[in-house]
Design a protein that fits this description.
By secondary structure, the chain is mainly α. The chain contains 9 helices and no strands.
């Protein structure tokens, strides 16, 4: 009696992981090809330059290979490697942060008109994920990181504060700033597309 295709794929994956852990370069390259789209997607959310994203991806993948012995089999593999990649990105951010970024503080309640409201249904129809990611990349660096960590990767403000070395309140402020700025950018883009 033969094994089901799904079980066979799982065995191949476990075999592949075991071969990678044992230093098999072909297996490691095969795993790299499988993981590349997922990890590059994570990297590009935090780095706009593809060369920087690629360098971070390589650093993160090396950590994946070096820690395969710690992989908990009960955890989905892709979720585990995403977590390692995000931690690698945060470590890189901490290592290269020489001066705290300047942030323009605004009171969002002052001077806001109803004309700046976004029709989210219309925005959903007009913009694809790539265009929205481009808007996110226009945010200031810390606000961009907080937004990605909170809204996309599901971290709490406390976790973000710990990762970035900021307070929970500062994390909340950056999230509010990012949301407001994204709303402004969406309104601008929608107004521009109506004119054309």
């Amino acid at each position: 009696m033969s094994a089901s295709p799904k079980k066979h794929r799982l065995e191949i994956q476990q075999t592949l992981l075991k071969d990678c852990a044992n230093g098999d370069r072909k297996a490691q390259f095969q795993l790299y090809k499988i993981c590349f789209p997922v990890l590059m997607g994570v990297c590009l959310r935090y780095r706009s330059e593809e060369s920087e994203a690629s360098a971070l991806l390589n650093e993160g993948f090396l950590k994946v290979l070096n820690h395969l012995d710690r992989y908990p089999p009960a955890t989905p593999f892709m979720a585990w490697i995403k977590r390692i990649m995000i931690n690698t990105i945060i470590d890189d951010f901490r290592k290269h942060r020489k001066v705290k970024e300047l942030v323009e503080y605004r009171d969002f309640s002052v001077g806001q008109s109803q004309d700046n409201e976004v029709d989210w249904n219309e925005a959903d129809l007009q913009f694809d994920a790539e265009q929205l990611e481009a808007l996110i990349r226009q945010l200031p660096p810390v606000s961009q990181k907080v937004f990605n960590l909170y809204a996309i990767d599901g971290y709490s403000h406390k976790e973000i504060g710990t990762l970035l070395g900021i307070s929970d309140g500062t994390s909340k402020w950056h999230l509010a700033f990012a949301r407001k700025r994204l709303q402004e950018l969406l309104v601008q883009k929608m107004d521009t597309s109506r004119v054309i």
